[in-house]
Amino acid sequence: MTRQLRKRTRAVVKKEQTDTPHTSKYFKKTKVKKEEVKESVLVEDSVDIEWVKTLNNKDYFQWIGERTGNIPRRWDTPLPEDAFQPINGNKLPKHFKYIYMKLRNMRSSINAPVDSVGGSSVSITVAEQLGIAKEELIPKNYRLQTLIGIMLSSQTKDEVTAKAMYNITKYCLDNFGARGISLDAMLQIDEPTLDSLIRAVGFHSRKAKYVTQTCQILVNRFNSEIPTTPEGMMSLPGVGPKMTYLTLQKTWGRMDGICVDVHVDRLCKLFKWVDSKKCKTPNDTREELQKWLPLPLWREINSLLVGYGQAIDRSRAKNCELCATEENPFIPGKSNAHNHICPKVASAELLDMVPHMKNYQSWVNYLVKEAKIYDVIKSELPSHDNTFLDMGPPLVKLEDEIMIKPEIKQENEVL
Questions:
Q1: 3-state SS of 325-341?
Q2: Is there a contact between 322 and 328 (Cβ–Cβ < 8 Å)?
Q3: How many CB atoms lie within 10 A of CB 296?
């Protein structure tokens, strides 16, 4: 089901007010000329929230998948023609298109935790592990589950968030007969009990308090639904811009802003897509990206970069349950070692790149060097020869789910 949304141009007017003239004898009187600057920003119309609320399970998940790009073979899906047209009349950073497409082309070869147990997808994976099919999920409950999963994921590895969500979901099944997490069930769980269920996540006591308070706020202020606007979402305890924009995108299909976490923040600075001197926090990076990043990329840049960030972090982990398959060619090394890959299932391009993924700086240097070589060859080719420049995505295979083992000893793992 596809609901077409109109696009419109919003004129944003910025004014600089005339400063009040100084009357002190130590300063000259100066006049500041009033300036009016108009910027044309292409924005998407707001989603028809009331219409979304009427959708049944099948129509809702089909629509939200198409809207957010969470569909099978998402990285094999071609980008729209305007995918690299910067907004607001700004220019793209140097080498941006080459590096972005190179990352996108190979992203399906990386089976990262964010793909199946990330804050926005963990509820579906956990439900299936407990025998609840996706077709049984009530959209309203799924939206709440997504919000809770994202709240728990802050400064916590996705695998650990999955353990906490598994515990909550199973508790609801065992004690309330509910088919997964619902608002009614959450209101019956006291804060100490919730704290014990999520003790594996970072700052679990604080998050238990926030989630408990949030559930009551949803009843009192939002008619037992999650908020539908950035202002409403950020009024919830413990919910900041990153959680807000990710939750609104994954539950209501709204693209109000880019979700920037530590991985996106770090890589955007290393690629020089934003000025690291100006962007001291992930929120600063988000605001800078939104000045020029083409709108079609807003919905996918987080998943794209987080997947690579987790692959690099995973290479420094002490152990990992994943082994090499056609969908996941990575063979993680031991502590302080870098990733290796299985040459039988990996492409030549991936074989060439992975040895450079032992740390962020090494990987970024490799990609920038490749981009410079690309520019040289491109300048030497005849204008009609596009053989080398074909950046079409390769054929990929669907990713396997990461199995969750709730019996694993819970530890407080913080990124």
A1: CCCCCEECCCCCCCCEE
A2: yes
A3: 16
Choice among 207, 242, 250, 269 that is catalytic: 242
Q: To 5 degrees, how large is the angle CA 332–CA 336–CA 342? A: 25
3-state helix, strand, coil in the chain (%, to 5): 50, 5, 45
| 20-59 pLDDT, tens digit each | 444 444 444 444 333 333 333 444 447 899 999 999 999 9
> Is the model's pTM score more than 0.70?
yes
- Concatenate the DSSP letters of all residues of 141-203 into one string: HHHHHHHHHHHHHTTS-HHHHHHHHHHHHHHHHHHH--SS--HHHHHTS-HHHHHHHTTTSTT
The two structure tokens encoding residue 401: 């789910």
The alpha carbon dihedral of 70, 73, 78, 83 has a sign of: positive
| Nearest alpha carbon to residue 352 among 369, 334, 335 | 369
Q: What distance lies between CA 20 and its chain's CA centroid?
A: 45
The CA distance from 20 to 219, in Å, is: 49
Indicate if 53 belongs to the active site.
no
Burial of 192 (0-12, 13-18, 19+ CB in 10 A): exposed
Residue 126 tokens, joined = 């956990």
Mind spelling out the 3-state secondary structure of 80-113?
A: CCCCCCCHHHCCCCCCHHHHHHHHHHHHHHCCCH
